[in-house]
Amino acid sequence: MSSMLAKRMGAKKVLTLINNAAYVDLVQGGEIDIAISPQQATIGSLLTHVRRGDIVNVHSLRRGAAEAIEAIAHGDTQSSKVVGRTIGGIDLPQGTTIGAVVRGKEVLIAHDDVVVESGDHVILFVIDKRRLRDVERLFQVGLTFF
Q1: At 101, is the secondary structure helix, strand, or coil?
Q2: What is the number of other CB atoms lying within 10 angstroms of the CB of residue 135?
Q3: CA atoms within 13 A on the CB side of 38
Q4: Where are the domains of the chain?
Q5: Which strands make up the sheet holding 55-61, listed edge to edge?
Q6: What pTM value is reported for the model?
Q7: Does pLDDT of 33 surpass 80?
Q8: What would the pLDDT profile of 125-139 be if each residue is shown by its tens digit?
Q9: Cβ 97 vs Cβ 88: under 8 Å
Q10: Phi/psi at 30 (nearest 5 deg)?
Q11: Is it true that domain 54-139 has CATH number 3.40.50.970?
Q12: Which of 53, 83, 129, 145 falls between 20 and 30 A from 119, CA-CA?
C-alpha cells in the first residue's frame, strides 16, 4: 500500500517487496513498477542449479506452471543442436518459444532467420514443464565437442 501511495505522490519508480503470494496478482500491471518476491527469487536460484546444460537463469512463471530460461549455446554445428542453426530450424519441444538471443551486449529479438552462435545466451519460455528435459538436452553438447 505504501508503494502505491508513493507512486501517487509522484515517485518516478516504485519497488516493493511482496511476501504474500496472493498479492502478486494485485500489483502486476498496476502502479508498482517492480515487485520482488523473495520466495520466487529463491525458487529461481534453486532451479538454476538443478537444470542440466549451461543454464544461467531460471524464473518460475505463472505460479510454477511455466518457466523462463536463459541458456548458453556451446559447441559447433557438429556437436550442438542449436549452434549454427536458425531459430526457425531448431526443433523446439512443443510449448517452447525462443524470445531473444543475447550476443555480447546486443539483444536480438527472436526471428526465424536469426542464427544461434556459440556463446549466445538464448532466452526461452517453456509453458509445458513436461518438456523441460527436452529443452535441457538441446543445450547439452555432444561428446565430439570435447
Answers
A1: strand
A2: 24
A3: 4
A4: 1-39, 54-139
A5: 55-61, 66-72, 121-126, 96-103, 106-109
A6: 0.64
A7: no
A8: 888 878 888 888 888
A9: no
A10: -100, -145
A11: no
A12: 129
